[in-house]
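look at this one:
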Amino acid sequence: MKKHVLMAAGALLAVSSLFAYNPPAGGQNLLRYSSPFALSGANSTAGGPVYDVIPSSVVTNPALPAFEQRIALDLGFTVFFDKNKELITSGNDKGSAFQVGVTLPTRWCVPTFLVQGVFAPLHDMNLANDILFTGNVSKDITDKVSVGLGVTTGGYWNDNASDWLLAANTGVFYRHGDFFFFKDVRFAFTLMNLGKMFGSSKTTQNFGIKGSAAEKWPGIATPRGGIAFLVVDKGDFKLGGSTDVASPAFQNFVLDLGFALEYSGLKFISFKLASAWELDLRELLENNKNLIPSAVLSVKFNLNTGANETMKKRGWQESELTVAGGWRNLYTDINAVSAGAVLKLGTVDRDPPVITLWDEEN
């Protein structure tokens, strides 16, 4: 058995060595900069420290939206500021990113669609100009297990080059429940970026983390596993954490830690403070430091449209609107400031159906 494991590991390393590993700084998180919710989610495949799933969750785990019952609309916008002006010989000192997403639950499955743009040809994080489209389908297998499959495509361009990507993403999610003193324990596993990724950039001397033209990003065939849980659940107050590990292209080690607390003791409004921290080993070894935690505050409003017949007809007389703002320091000299909103139409149906086999006789 040990011999077979060693042979498999050796074959895996041999295959991975065929792909150069020199992404731009931040290239592995290309799809996670366009929203404050992603900045604070710690790339959690298990739904975040305090469980919350929105359309853009599919970029971390395609299986997450499977239990969503409501139509959800997701908007996000981020501005990047690169203050390393003394060293700028190429790239810009400002950038931006945006996203628009929607989840449309049906009785058979839960489709999600996401459009993202990242315009960040920065000196310290040269991601060029990118437009990306993601289509995703997720499905619950049991009341605790879901699976998902997504496809991401798009392209990038700058003054020197352009390229395209087309990749499939898969994931599984398991909601275990309570375990000892941990509450709402969740596990997940994904295998992302199965296909053609961005190739050589043919651009500035410091585009990739090794100081030469960037190669192959985001990392092809990236496995990621994670766990999330609550350590405090008092109804109105929740405190949770998450841990994820990944191996982009099987040539790197990435650790993501998340923390969040939520207070919902008020009638029409609730608050959540979240933070995330990431350790990317290869970036750190190449002196691309990205170790300061993010900070994001979100506020959820319970909306009541009253007697509006159009909304009432569709069951949308009560809905939820979450707005958020966040900040993250990236690679010492870049500050990302992000704002976003998520609208979920209607309320979650928590009452099981009542089945009557025959009418009661008087």
